Write the structure tokens for this entry.
Amino acid sequence: MKEVKLKLYGLGINNNYQAKVFIYDSYNNLIYEGYTYNGYLIISLNINQRYKLVASSLNEYINAYFYINDNYEYIFFFKRSLLNTNNNITLILTDYYYDNLPISKGELILWKR
Amino acid sequence: MEKIVTITNGTGTSDLINGTYTVEASVVGYDNTSIDPSTLTIQAGTNNYAFTIASTGTLTLHVTEDGTSTGTPIVGATFIRTDSTGNEYGSVITTDSNGDAVFDNVPYAATGAPIIYYKQTASDGDHEFDNTVQNTTMTTETSTIEIQNQPGATRTIALTDANYTNLPIESGTLTLTN
């Protein structure tokens, strides 16, 4: 057995909502049922064994097999974390003809397609 | 639904979801249709995106000995655009036979035009110049600023014998390299 960290992305800003998680062994026996804390859970699993993770959060599911090797951390993604992440984006606006000359003030208007 | 990102000193931030956006600019003094790129795709893992915008004004710096439009032109004086603290941008421009150094593609607007900073980096070797950061704003597409580069003052240099106090050296030359 070794202790591993299962990290789930897509649990909101500051992980303020969590996921319910089920872990099954290679014989499809349920070996863990619980909730993530701060976006992850720590669990002891057998090395060189395959497991299945089923997680649910806000009507979205992860259903993934994973194999325990020498790594400590294993990462899983809710689809929303890949498709609809709310990113803090920095836009840099400079003069076309004067390299790197910052534009002192103005606005950029972005229309989502 | 649009997102408006305010730009200050070249940078603006906003919370934006992944996806493709059409980008419009609202920058006083610049040609807002020149925003590049005009389409932005925000994707996970990339949080910084760069844009450029261009302007179409022309600022002429006319350099003469007396700082007037009819004065003796200074040929070979150099200038560069800067920000307010003196950081340099773009290429050095040099006065031509008329004493004109021309900055193309600078911003202008009837009201609220951005400040244009520049400084002189050299004269022709025979004239004094002010190397501090200067600024102007342009309310029309073209503008000319008169700049004075006075002739170097006449200096008296004394050369005496090191071992015989005040004994003038009768003849010779001294070469001063700046």
